[in-house]
Specification:
single chain, alpha/beta, 2 domains, 7 helices
Length: about 220
């Protein structure tokens, strides 16, 4: 057995994508249920890693992510609407990132009526470092304020304008943290909700244009 490292995980994404793209998947024929397709891909990837002889601690409801030791969660999304849901933990995730890396499988699905099976084609498999999984507009605004020598009050006002789900004390505390520890530029779009909605159109566009700090297309 081989211990699964982050490098091994990333290296096996491309070979998995090539292998699964050859499958005729009868159980997904005719379905438009993104959750069912995502579950199939996630289970298939775990099975693929086990067949390759990798040993790792799988995720659980307690950890909330697929590879807790490596701090990596796996997401799947259709290229036509690249988004998924994510458990809400704390508002600061919009500023400092989700707290774990992401592997995002971006797929297209086609049905073959002759074989009554589905075919999955992966256009991208994106690795996003955890420091870059914050909300794009929120971090861009904060970085701009700090570059213009804005103070804590300016940051508080900005957080209020962004309608982050915080009370006045929470905004003050987060603004103080931001003043001491400015965030990196994030690249996701994260909606304000009790269940985060993550949108990936920007990182798809970034990897199509080329390399970007913290964002990598594992298929190339």
């Amino acid at each position: 057995m081989n211990i699964l490292t982050l490098d091994f995980l990333k290296e096996n994404v491309a070979s998995f994508a090539r292998e699964i793209s050859k499958r005729k998947i009868r159980e997904l024929y005719g379905t438009t249920d993104g959750k069912a397709i995502g579950t199939y891909i996630e289970h298939a990837f775990h099975e693929y890693l086990k067949e390759k002889g990798f040993e790792y601690e799988p995720g659980s409801s307690a950890s909330g992510i697929d590879f807790p030791v490596l701090e990596v969660d796996m997401k799947t999304t259709r290229i036509t609407q690249p988004q998924s849901s994510c458990p809400f933990e704390k508002v600061s995730q919009k500023v400092y990132g989700l707290g774990y890396h992401l592997i995002v499988f971006v797929y297209e699905k086609e049905d073959d009526p002759k074989t009554r099976s589905a075919h999955l084609n992966f256009s991208h498999a994106i690795f996003a470092e955890k420091e870059y999984t914050a909300d794009y507009q929120t971090t861009k605004g904060i970085i701009g304020i700090l570059e213009r020598e804005g103070n804590k009050d300016d940051i508080v006002a900005f957080l209020e304008e962004r309608n982050l789900p915080l009370d006045e004390i929470g905004r003050q505390e987060l603004a103080e943290q931001i003043s001491r520890n400015p965030p990196q530029q994030g690249y996701l779009t994260i909606s304000n909700a009790l269940q985060w909605r993550l949108q990936y159109s920007r990182i798809v566009h970034l990897v199509e244009e080329g390399s970007t700090d913290g964002i990598e297309n594992l298929l190339f």
